[in-house]
Specification:
Layout: E1 10-16, H1 23-35, E2 39-46, H2 49-60, H3 66-84, H4 93-98, H5 107-118, H6 121-124, H7 131-139, H8 142-147, E3 151-158, E4 164-168, H9 174-180, E5 190-192, E6 195-198, H10 209-214, E7 219-224, H11 237-268, E8 281-286, H12 288-291, H13 304-324, H14 337-342, E9 348-349, E10 352-353
Parallel strand pairs: 1-2, 1-7, 2-3, 7-8
Antiparallel strand pairs: 3-4, 3-6, 5-6, 9-10
Helix pairs in contact: 1-2, 1-3, 1-13, 2-3, 3-7, 7-9
């Protein structure tokens, strides 16, 4: 049933990263947050898998019904699993026996990976077949997305200019979502109004500024599925390429977070008094320790047990955040952006972003 607003209700905005099947972690986070009547979701920004989670939630939330929003997300991911039953991309028996989730030793994945490095999707997929598109058309009602109680923003990368393009729910359709999730080595660029687009993760994973410009809540919760830190230097060719891609997809987000920190410092110093700038409070729901153990190939793994595991970890991470950080919403950030950029080790705590220590009144 739709939950009535209570005196403890706090509005937040969500920033959903992309990352293939790892988006099931974000599904788990959203499922747990929707259970809590104290959490009021004002806006969502997403890229790639984050965009798909965003529209699936919004379609279910058209009437403000939390349970229908949860059911809409579950229908979407169940559809993904049903579609994946026909997928030939599976773990090798050795990987499965060792309890890993990567596809690195799968002969078919190795061949698939090689083909995408020497041929473009215009060569090996001339008809631009994409089962995920059919799934989105079947399971996401964009009329309901446009009527949703939550604000939705998804981003893609303009191939011609290299700049981010953000759409809000009023103009959103299947092409916009597919553009946001278009990996250029797998799919042909998606054209929207005659402009070609690639994955939104290149220019914002996800883009944060739509929330700053259009939402009243000052609190932004990043649902993080791409680890920022990965100890050690990769040695194999595949690991090097994967880490380069990971850094690339994190770069735009880190730029946005650095801007948030810069503006916050100016506000605290009183140098923006009388302006329209406001202090953004940043939070993160993450499990870097667990997700960092997964290789890039696992983002193509859609085995039911793997999706279930990611979903459960997402719910657990959201539960921890609700228990430890939700009380600070509306008061202060719970991640220390400054230490992130200074590269200090204690910016991370147990593989997750470390909560920011509360300043004393004298220091404030």
């Amino acid at each position: 049933m739709a939950q009535a607003r209570t005196s403890e209700t706090k509005p937040i905005n969500l920033a959903l990263q992309g990352g293939g099947s790892h988006g099931a972690f974000s599904w788990g986070v959203l499922d747990r947050l929707l259970e809590d009547p104290r959490v009021e979701i004002e806006g969502i920004t997403g890229a790639s898998a984050g965009a798909m989670n965003a529209v699936a939630l919004a379609a279910g939330f058209a009437d403000g019904d939390r349970e229908e929003a949860r059911a809409s997300l579950r229908r979407f991911w169940t559809g993904v699993l049903n579609e994946a039953r026909e997928s030939p991309l599976r773990r090798s028996p050795i990987e499965a026996m060792l309890g890993g989730w990567n596809l690195d030793t799968s002969p078919l994945f190795v061949m698939f990976d090689l083909v995408t490095r020497i041929a473009s999707p215009y060569d090996f997929n001339p008809f631009n077949a994409n089962p995920l598109r059919d799934l989105v058309v079947q399971l996401v009602d964009f009329d309901r997305v446009r009527k949703s109680k939550v604000k939705v923003y998804i981003s893609a990368t303009n191939v011609e200019t290299g700049r981010a393009k953000v759409w809000d729910k009023r103009e959103m359709g299947v092409d916009h979502v597919m553009a946001s999730a278009c990996l250029p080595w797998l799919f042909q660029a998606v054209e929207v109004d005659g402009v070609p687009y690639w994955d939104g993760g290149f220019t914002g994973n996800p883009a944060l500024w739509p929330l700053f410009d259009n939402c009243r809540s000052d609190d932004v919760v990043l649902v993080q599925i791409n680890p920022i830190r990965r100890p050690g230097a990769p040695k194999t060719a595949r690991d090097i390429i994967n880490r380069v891609n990971e850094i690339t997809f994190n770069a735009a987000l880190l730029h946005d977070l650095r801007s948030v920190d810069f503006v916050t410092r100016l506000i605290e110093a009183g140098r923006l008094d009388g302006t329209e700038y406001r202090k953004i409070l940043m939070h993160a729901i993450a499990d870097e320790a667990s997700l960092a153990e997964l290789g890039a190939s696992s983002k193509f793994n859609v085995e039911p047990d793997f999706i279930d595991m990611l979903f459960a970890k997402g719910r657990d991470a959201a539960e921890i955040w609700l228990r430890t950080s939700f009380r600070h919403v509306g008061q202060r950030s719970t991640i220390d952006l400054r230490k992130m950029f200074q590269g200090e080790e204690d910016a991370l705590d147990g593989g997750q972003l470390k909560p920011q220590r509360r300043k004393t009144r004298a220091a404030e």
